[in-house]
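In response to the reviewer comment on reproducibility (Comment 2.3), we provide here a single inverse folding case reported in full, input and output, so that an independent group could reproduce the run without further information from us. The structure tokens appear first.
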């Protein structure tokens, strides 16, 4: 592919939080960015932020767990921006509960968005990457992949994302495509604010408790994850694949 051509990146779940920060960072890195989320209108702020800095962005509404819609979204990106050569599978939901209270809908919904969604989006994008002989897939896992009370569905999905990533690396490497995962720890987002509400804590108190248990003494911000994704999405990571990077402010395990 031409080195002078602007590469196109797709970020799912990019209306807010980690996804929005990642979309903005990739735009700053020189990518044209497709900003995907369930509600296209919700992507307006992210697209506007990119445009304000002189970048190129396209809002696309899609349910990533729907095969036909995922395929159509990728083809729209290819038609309006260009072939998507970077994919960040960030879209996700939580439906937290203890095992004995968790419903089948809670289980299926979380695994559907995280794992089925990542599978469908990657399958749709990889043909553009293989045709170009270059591609980057970056999947969002979590420290919850190691186990977290009340999140058996989310933990299973995020652990599955790591196995998915490692297998993609094996299958797609010969086509010039790398696949890596970023596993955030506590990141201050709307999702973690809702978790604080669910457990009866103020968000500030929730963050303070998390920071006290983090070696660097603070919680993460969406930009912390965006920086890690930026590395995996760039030329410098061409010999790095099948890896899981924990971005958690300290050691895990």
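Designed residues, in position order:
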């Amino acid at each position: 592919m031409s080195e002078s051509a602007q590469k196109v990146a797709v970020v799912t779940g990019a209306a807010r939080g980690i996804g929005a920060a990642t979309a903005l960072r990739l735009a700053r890195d020189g990518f044209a960015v497709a900003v995907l989320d369930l509600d296209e209108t919700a992507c307006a702020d992210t697209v506007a932020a990119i445009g304000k800095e002189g970048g190129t962005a396209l809002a696309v509404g899609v349910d990533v767990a729907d095969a036909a819609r995922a395929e159509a979204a990728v083809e729209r990106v290819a038609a309006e921006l260009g072939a998507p050569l970077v994919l960040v599978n960030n879209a996700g939901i939580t439906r937290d509960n203890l095992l004995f209270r968790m419903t089948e809908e809670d289980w299926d919904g979380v695994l559907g968005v995280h794992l089925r969604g990542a599978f469908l989006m990657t399958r749709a994008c990889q043909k553009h990457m293989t045709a170009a002989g270059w591609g980057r897939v970056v999947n969002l896992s979590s420290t919850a992949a190691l186990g977290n009370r009340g999140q058996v569905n989310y933990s299973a999905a995020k652990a599955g994302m790591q196995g998915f990533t490692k297998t993609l690396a094996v299958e797609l490497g010969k086509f010039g495509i790398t696949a890596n995962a970023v596993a955030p720890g506590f990141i201050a987002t709307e999702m973690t604010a809702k978790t604080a509400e669910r457990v009866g804590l103020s968000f500030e108190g929730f963050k303070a408790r998390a920071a006290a248990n983090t070696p660097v003494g603070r919680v993460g911000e969406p930009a912390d994850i965006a920086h890690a994704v930026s590395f995996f999405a760039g030329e410098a990571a061409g010999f790095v694949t099948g890896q899981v990077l924990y971005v958690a402010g300290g050691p895990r395990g």
